[in-house]
Amino acid sequence: MKVNLPILLTLLLYIQTYSQKSNIISYGIDSTDLSAEHHNLNTYRSTINFPPFIGWSRNGNKMLFNGGKVIYAMKRYNSEIKEYEKFDSYLSSYLSPDRRKFLYLEDDDGNEDYQIFLYDINTNKAIEISAKGDKSYDPFWSPDSNRFAYKSNKRNATEVDLYFKSLTNLDNGKLVFQDFSDDGQLYDWSAEKGLVLAAKVISENNKMLYLINDVSGHSTQINSTKSDIAYSDAKFIPNQEACLIVSDEFSEFLELTHYDLNKKRFNRITSDIPWDVEALTIDEYGKKAAFSTNENGFSKLYILDLKTLAYQKVADFPIGILDNLVIANNGTKIGFNFYSSTFSRKVFCYDIKNKTLKQYARKGKLPVDAMTFVTAEPFTFKSVDTSTGIENTIPAFIYKPQGSARPSPVFIDIHGGPEYQIRPRFNSFYQYLVNELGITVIIPNIRGSNGYGKSYMKADDTWNRENAITDVGALLDWIKNEKDLDEKNVSIYGESYGGYVVLASLAKYPQRLKCGIDIVGISNWVSYLENTRDYRRDLRRVEFGDERIESMRNFLSEISPLTHVQGIDSPLLIVQGFNDPRVNYKESVQMFESLNQKNKDVWFLMAKDEGHGFHKRQNYKLQQNLIVSFLKKHLLNAYFKN
Fold first, then answer.
1. Residue 20 pLDDT more than 70?
2. I want to staple 414 with a disulfide (CB 3.0 to 4.6 A). Which of 118, 195, 498, 523 is the partner?
3. What does 164-178 look like in DSSP terms, one character per residue?
């Protein structure tokens, strides 16, 4: 329905429609749809949700867990969970190695201009240690817990630098690496060697690995003669002049290598595993390590002997996704969090000597969900480039409703990034759609996704951007050939870059997509690149193209959904945060205005107190309920009438 209004851009801060909340702006949405609450949304939750494992006690005898305002501990997999530390604030992920303090970040309503705060667990007091207005973030503790490194753009708003700061002199931070990059990563800090391992990021496919002296700040690049190498992790081996490095230098995949710091020589370790190494942990004596691989979205665990560099795969490993892999200091046990499409979180411990894998549970009583959730099943489909004739295999996962008497409608979720991989973790919204509404959910990893080799991740870069949209068309072809799926009732959803794919797909396949949902999506590549935060722009230009070059600017304009608004005939829901530093809110505003002027069916929702997505509880609840209302009206109404 068309909304008659002045230029929306000038009204955003002042006008509220259909809402009692001053932070919410909406257009084109009936009040009944905006206020509707679908109560069963909250019932599709897994009770198998153990407190997340965060590490080991110093002696390695206890596993520690984040309980919010409590750190819990357990001695054995079947013992009682007990209070280890208690405090007044919620524990962040930046807990110091000595377990006596932690750092946490705060921003204003999603603008990502983070401040760093230090919380002392003993005194229950927090102090501000970075200035408001700068973006200071990603703190990394020294092994002795007396210093930390962090990134900040306080010197120059357009560049992100690396700093070291001592707890004895919190007023001053030492600049150690200028223009370190927004996505720059710290991997390890060795007290023994007085060195930090860190990577400057040019792009996801091109990173520079450095050794940084933790006193002088002097940096030396490892492998300085090489280019376009992706690094994902690196750790010093205690009692050796060596480190383990995960990179794609010698392979399509991120493989584990041993690097001799003196001889500057690499030794490949996992060359026979054609998948990415995703996690790495080493004991404090340099005897044992563990690593996991991401094999088509599922994790596998391996134990590595650091003397021989021989590794063994852990047998009978469950199907799921591993996270926060941490070996005990003495190298005897390995802990990790574990996720699946059918439960929220389990915690496991692997005993290296006894080769036993145990799930931790209160007094050994393993929880069981009252509901039966649908398992995500992997599958692939073919996508053929019409210009080259090359056939590409696209991996995906599918959640199917059980016992449907007729072909089901479909909900396609396109991930953001695009250098990201959507994996089958538990998703309560998917389970609601499948179990409550009878909708099949498909989550594809279209070209540009990581996890399937560097060539696959590069397959949508710059001039090849529309390969991703071709893959959506190929998925629609696959759906057409599946007897239990209804090709006439397909919806598409995406966030950020996924939002761009939604908009572009609606324009390219208007008769094949029933409706679309765009969350903080990109509508015009040129305006997106010009308006994203300065410190992000160069990194995004490598992936998407440099809009300052005329030929690329013309190409970006041509493939932008805003250029093809007339082709969009399906109803569209647009959701945006006003303070978004990544995809400026104007991307959504201009898309809404253009569609509205052409009398297209478009719903628009904006929160003035959100950034790149809705994260505050009430706003997120509103968004989820509105999506259900939108799907019921524009996907399911026609489906049930036929």
1. no
2. 498
3. EEETTEEEEEEEEET
Distance between CA atoms of residues 271 and 258, nearest Å: 12
Distance CA 71, CA 54 (A): 9
Residue 404: pLDDT above 80?
Answer: no
Tokens describing residue 417: 């990034």
CATH of the domain at 505: 3.40.50.1820
Q: What are the tens digits of pLDDT across the range 252-290?
A: 999 999 999 999 999 999 999 999 999 999 999 999 999
Domains contained in the chain, number: 1
Q: Other C-beta atoms within 10 Å of 98: how many? A: 13
Asked if residue 593 is part of any domain, the answer here is yes
What's the full length of the chain, in residues? 642
CA–CA gap between residue 293 and residue 296 (Å, rounded): 9
Q: Is 233 helix (H, G, I), strand (E, B) or coil?
A: strand
At 419 the three-state DSSP class reads coil
| pLDDT for 2 | 55
What pLDDT is attached to residue 385?
A: 84
Q: In this structure, are residues 112 and 153 in contact, taking their beta carbons and an 8 Å threshold?
A: no
CA distances from 638 to 271, 486, 634 (A): 52, 12, 7
Which residues on adjacent β-strands are paired with residue 106? 115
Do 506 and 519 form a contact (C-beta atoms < 8 A)? no
Asked whether 288 and 303 are in contact (CB, 8 A), the reply is: yes
Is pLDDT of 17 > 50?
A: no
Residue 178 has pLDDT above 50, yes or no: yes
Q: Per-residue confidence at 133, pLDDT binned at 50, 70, 90?
A: confident
pLDDT, residue 642, reads 62
The secondary structure element, H or E, covering residue 259 is: strand 255-260
Residue 331 tokens read as: 């190298």
Is 360 within the bounds of a domain?
Answer: no
Q: Do 72 and 84 form a contact (C-beta atoms < 8 A)?
A: yes
Helix axes 467-480, 497-508, angle to 10 degrees: 60
Q: Give the pLDDT of residue 13.
A: 44
Q: What are phi and psi of 568, to 5 degrees?
A: -85, 115
Asked if residue 500 is part of any domain, the answer here is yes
Domain that holds residue 414: 8-44+371-641
Query: What letters, b where the CB count within 10 A reaches 16 and e where it falls short, cover 136-153?
Result: bbbbbbbbeeebbbbbbb
**Residue pLDDT, tens place only, 295-321:** 999 999 999 999 999 999 999 999 999
Quick check: helix, strand or coil at residue 536? Answer: helix
Residue 515's alpha-carbon distances to 440, 506, 574, in angstroms, are 15, 8, 11
The pLDDT, as a whole number, for residue 15 is 44
Half-sphere exposure of 454 (CA within 13 A, CB side): 18
Q: Which of 475, 597, 590, 464 is nearest to 5 (CA)?
A: 597
Residue 518 domain-assigned?
Answer: yes
Kindly state the average pLDDT of the residues 315-337.
Answer: 95
Question: Taking all residues of the chain, what is their mean pLDDT, rounded to a whole number?
Answer: 93
CA distance linking residue 138 with residue 159, whole number of Å: 15
Helix (H, G, I), strand (E, B) or coil at 162: strand
- Alpha carbon distance 199, 363 (integer Å): 43
Is the per-residue pLDDT at 640 higher than 90?
Answer: no
**pLDDT value of residue 225:** 76
